[in-house]
Amino acid sequence: MKFAKSAAGLCLLLAVAGCAGPSVAVTPDENLTVEQRAETPDATMNAAFGTQRVWGSGLSVVVSAPRSLSPSDTATPRAPRTAVFTLTVYNGSKNAYRPSQLAVKAMANGAAAPELVDSVQGLNGLAAAATELPPGKDTQVLLAFAVPEGPVQMQLTVQPGGQGQDAPTVFEGQA
Known about the structure:
The chain is mainly beta. Helix content is 12%, strand content 33%. The chain is built from 2 helices and 10 strands, in the order ααββββββββββ. It has helices spanning 2-18, 34-37; strands at residues 46-48, 52-54, 59-63, 67-69, 81-91, 103-108, 111-113, 138-147, 153-159, 169-174. It is globular, with a radius of gyration of 20 Å.
């Protein structure tokens, strides 16, 4: 009888420990730095806005939930509304990284959403993120996309090494 209780307890302990493996979608603890939140990716390659994705190189990206803005008169392309995302990029690799290498594609309700540049509001696009990011450091990049007036389901596909260089992760949620 004593053996049966011990065996059952051991099985329960092993089952719980087996569920604690790493995951691609990590909900960040606001008290931790990006480096402290790093997790090893699994094969799902999908994440909700606000979660972190870490690639094998050590580079990680967190895509914030979007905020909505009205574009200025000088915004390109013209759009009824702008969905603005903050991408926090942490360089956990051993080499310097240029955030402008990121490949980011957006979809709104299944249709392509073009990147919007609105310098009046400080939205200068991915091409403006040219400063090298040293190993062990993080930076934030603001990206905006042209979207319809009402709420939309958004998907941002992110590849840190550029198109076709790294496995893509699709961050998704409502904007």
